[in-house]
Design a protein that fits this description.
Strand order of the largest sheet: 4-3-5-12-6
Radius of gyration: 31 Å
Number of helices: 10
Number of strands: 12
Structural class: alpha/beta
Distance between the termini: 60 Å
Helix content: 25-40%
Largest sheet: 5 strands, mixed
Oligomer: single chain
Length: about 280
């Protein structure tokens, strides 16, 4: 039963007797019977073994309705605008015990994840490039926005008109080279950026009240166009799409609650990709 030879069993019993200061098993006729000390230890040791077995057994699937915790998610304007509303709607339906804390993306997001400052990060793949555990959610493209009664851009947006207009740029780091500038530079062209804004949510008010043009992530641009009566145009230059991704700490890779949240976000990503 012990899967040990007789000499190995005798040696183990000898070590046990020395450790406990008790014979543990004594001979009565043809049988070995436990001492009172052994009988006293049997029940608590069985409980300890059962606890170990339970701990090592594969956990049962998590029921989101039983989760009571706060998830700390680091993201940017894009994640807050596109994904957080979907996530809150989903949580309200199936996991009312979950709360969200939305944090700004730290410059060293990998350290923030590793130290447990946040549970998950959502941003473009370039921002999360140093994170060890990442997964792509969906791809995003660019769209241009102007006001409805723009005096020069009416039914189409030509490259010549694009570079002549004054542009708005969204950047939390101040005046930087955006996605558009390297592509224009390759064609010997340059745009003029009249205003740099730290948050994308300022864009509708600025665009609706000026003749500025802005080049934004398509899903945000389309929403602004619908809600604020703005016009959208495809960029007159070939801009690469970019990936929206999530990242987490490898220490929390097997955490059931984090795994569940990641699955939910992956489903959102699939739905967004096909919409």
């Amino acid at each position: 039963k012990l899967h040990l030879s007789q000499p190995a069993t005798s040696a183990a019993l000898k070590r046990l007797r020395l450790a406990l200061g008790d014979p543990i098993l004594v001979r009565e006729g043809l049988h070995m019977v436990p001492t009172p000390r052994a009988e006293q230890l049997a029940e608590p040791i069985q409980a300890i073994l059962s606890a170990i077995e339970h701990t090592l057994t594969a956990p049962q699937p998590l029921d989101p309705s039983t989760i009571n915790r706060t998830f700390k998610i680091a993201t940017n304007d894009y994640g807050t605008f596109v994904l957080v509303p979907m996530l809150m709607q989903r949580l309200g339906a199936i996991a009312p015990g979950i709360n969200l804390e939305i944090w700004e993306i730290a410059q060293d997001v990998e350290t923030a994840l590793r130290q447990g400052e946040v549970d998950l990060a959502i941003a473009d793949a370039w921002t999360l490039r140093h994170c060890k555990c990442t997964e792509t959610l969906f791809s995003e493209t660019f769209t241009c926005l102007v006001r409805q009664d723009h005096p020069r851009i009416r039914t189409q947006l030509a490259l010549e008109d694009y570079v002549k207009e004054t542009h708005a740029l969204v950047s939390s780091r101040g005046r930087v080279v955006g996605n558009v500038d390297p592509v224009l530079s390759q064609q010997g062209l340059q745009r003029y950026v009249g205003v740099t804004l730290p948050h994308v949510l300022a864009i509708p008010a600025v665009i609706a009240s000026t003749d500025l043009i802005v080049t934004l992530a398509t899903r945000i641009a389309n929403r602004f166009a619908t809600d604020y009566g703005l016009k959208t145009f495809p960029p007159p230059i070939a801009l690469d799409s970019f990936e929206i991704a999530m990242a987490w700490s490898n220490r929390m890779d097997n955490n059931l609650a984090i795994q569940w949240l990641r699955r939910e976000l992956m489903e959102f990503g699939q739905a967004i990709s096909t919409s």
